[in-house]
Amino acid sequence: MKTALHVITAAILASLICAGCKSTGTKQLIANAGMESPSAAQLPRNWEPLSIGAKADVVTDTAEKHAGTSSIRIDASDFTRTYACSDKFPVVPGEKIDGSAYVKVKDVPPDHGIVIMMAEFFDPTGQDPSVEKFNVANLKKQKGWQKIRGTTTAPANAVSARVRVGFSYAKGTCWWDDVTVKPRQPLAARLDIDEARLSPAMQTLPVLIVNREARQGPARVKLALDKQIIEQEVTLDGNPTQRIELPIKVPSPGKVNVHLQVLPKGQSKPKFATTQPTLQVPHAIVFPPVSPTHWVTEDGPPKIEGRIDLAVSDAMRQGATLRAHVRDSSGKTIATWEGPKEIPDGITEFNLEPKSAPQGTYTLVAELTPKNGKPIAATQPWHVIPRSRAKVTISPDGFPVHDGKPIFPLGIFNGGKWEEQAKAGFTVTHAYNAARITPGPRPQDHEVLRWLDNSEANGMKMLLMVPMRLAIKGDWDGIRRRVRMFRNHPGLLAWDEEEGFARGDFKPDTIRQLRKIISEEDPNHPFMVGDARSLAAARSTDRSNFFPEEMDLGMWWWYPFPLKARAANALEGEESSTGQELDLPTFLTKAITKKPLWVGIQSYKKKDSRYPTPQEYRCQAYLALAAGAKGLMWYGGSVSGGVFLAPEEGNFEALKKVAREINDLSPELLGATLKPPLVMPASAPINVVVKQSPKRTIVIAVNRSNRVVDVTLSSPMFKTKIARVYESQLLDASGGGLIADHFEPFEVHVYEIFQQ
Questions:
Q1: HSE (CB half, 13 Å, CA atoms) of 754?
Q2: I need a labelling partner for 501 at 20 to 30 A (CA). Which of 188, 255, 264, 584 fits?
Q3: 596-619 pLDDT per residue, tens
Q4: Helix (H) or strand (E) holding 363
Q5: Phi/psi of residue 368, nearest 5 degrees
Q6: Cβ atoms within 10 A of the Cβ of 286, count?
Q7: Which homologous superfamily does the CATH classification assign to the domain defined by 47-183?
Q8: Superfamily (CATH H level) for 672-753
């Protein structure tokens, strides 16, 4: 589902060899690759430090070096992501780049984190970097210098890059020296545009030639947009980059295949070229979701913020009129906005303020009326609702409440099978890619709206992630905009943040700032945090004080299957285990916080492993409930190794059956918790919880071990008969409040107590 709005679609030509061209030889891409410095008091020129998460020292070392007079040393007392970074250099999408470096390590744990050389690529905005690995150091070799080398490929949106060398979730000391970065293609080219977007207003398409050999002489640029071929003769001027303009005729709306070549005069076939179908010609008028998508009557007269995105020729805009309207259910216009006389190509913002708009469904219209010709328009629905439909609170028992009705949360991470999930009893939806924002003027708001609309239509609520990239970059205005847009949608359950601290991406005050923005912009929905209070808390084996204080709800992961002896690893969702039974997640059982906690439970295939069995699905879910979980979220649906990718192998039908069972029990799960029965023998690996609704009392008993267990349960509640729910079996409790029962490995029994 991922859509890159700032993708530069390009094709790359490599080698240009001809007798008529002069070349001074290919140079490596980074300056001061030997990390030479005039003194230890400053970093080598052309290098700068970067710390993400825990801080570390990045300094010049004149005593320890591979060659020359100095190296760069990084000292980290805590696990960190800290690097020395080179200056940026231009790249073209899809090209291969070879890199190598000399590295030395000391006191670096070999089983936690890596010492790495990587390329960090930047899009035209410079706000959406991505990284690709060259190679990592051998941490078993803690003496002497070692050379590492590798090759990386520039992604589709890359226009520049820099080298990062240092720690990734590691600590200790590392030294770096003599870095080499060379492109496979000494001469290459890419489209020089800010977005993967072609508008009919564009008469030319800029191309940037990247000349690493300082070549001079004649060459030919050849561009194919689908079947349209444009060729232009150029003279290479020897500069590192050279910009030219190619005249084009913009194709019809849709995706456009692009093929770009730079060829020496007389040569018809390049040695290297790529084609990437990622350019988009939008429709003439695009109407993104307005903010807010729903208005609540309690907030007074409506205020609507919106954008109209045009992609039409200059001639069509000249003398035209641009308007936005609000129409009621009868078609009557109740508010109108009129745009400027000089209508720009692309985005124009507008505001609408109807004086009165009773509850109901309205139609918003964006319309361009040319001086000569028929109007073009786009529409979207807009709603006015009561606050009760756009508010979620937390009950005293820790459950979300919407429109007066409590919800027992059951969901799947990245689960977009709305109708199937609702039918199975799931109550919560969640998305990763659909909730993300790629930095730029056209965020993917329509995808979020589609998820919220489908969630609401199927009787579910969405756990909506804040834009994590924006949070990492500190783009608070962008986050405010997203929260304002969807704050009143009836499909919204809560705002969600995941693993920013645990993965070392967040600054110390990021969660506090997110909490502040959500409280100010949307005080009517809770803030769910699936994160540690700090990087140290995520690494600690003591997870009793795991969560940050700023949350309303908390969640962490518990992925125990297949059962085996292992050490605790929070990021992998693994508890310390002997491999004989399911060890309950300590972030839940030992939590200091009194705020409601959900458990992320397993529905994916770990690397070189397997999916949970039907018995394991049922056992883990009920065991989490017995331990006090206020919600369950399975990881995951459409994720790496997720159950949606292999539903039969992943036992998805069994998982849906578990969700339906728990949904049917939700009146009791949302009710009072009573004193549990005594389990005999006391050492038996059986967890028990008693829940009560106004209509009935149930007992959930779970065998958390992989062995057969026989136990006796004792409680004064056991008066006469007890029924095993889902198994149509009665147990006699008339003999003094005792029942004896047999449990197969990982078996769950749900009993209903019948009173006299």
A1: 11
A2: 584
A3: 999 999 999 998 899 999 999 999
A4: strand 360-369
A5: -115, 120
A6: 18
A7: Galactose-binding domain-like (2.60.120.260)
A8: Golgi alpha-mannosidase II (2.60.40.1180)
Q: Which residues contact 369 (CB under 8 A, 6 or more apart)?
A: 320, 321, 322, 323, 375
Q: What is the 3-state secondary structure (H, E, C) of 485-535?
A: HHCCCCCEEEEEEECCCCCCCCCCCHHHHHHHHHHHHCCCCCEEEECCCCH
Question: Is residue 512 a contact partner of residue 471, using CB atoms and an 8 Å limit?
Answer: no
DSSP helix/strand/coil, 192: coil
The predicted pLDDT at position 266 comes to 67
Is 150 in contact with 117 (CB distance < 8 Å)?
A: yes
Contact 74, 84 (CB under 8 A): yes
CATH code that applies to domain 187-281 = 2.60.40.10
Cα–Cα nearest to 526, from 558, 547, 502, 497: 497
Residue 177 phi, psi (nearest 5): -160, 160
Q: What residue spans in the chain does CATH classification 2.60.120.260 cover?
A: 47-183
- Top-level CATH class of 292-385? mainly beta
Comparing CA positions, the residue from 715, 714, 724, 731 lying closest to residue 750 is 724
Q: Which two tokens stand for residue 678?
A: 């005594």
Distance CA 722, CA 753 (A): 5
pLDDT computed for residue 267 by the predictor:
65
Identify the helix (H) or strand (E) that includes residue 86: strand 71-86
Question: What mean pLDDT do residues 210-231 have?
Answer: 89
Q: Which of 464, 467, 451 is nearest to 500 (CA)?
A: 467
d(CA 245, CA 313): 18
Which of 282, 260, 283, 254 shows the shortest CA–CA distance to 273? 260
pTM for this structure?
Answer: 0.89
Amino acid letter, 140:
K
Q: Is the peptide bond before 99 cis (omega within 30 degrees of 0)?
A: no
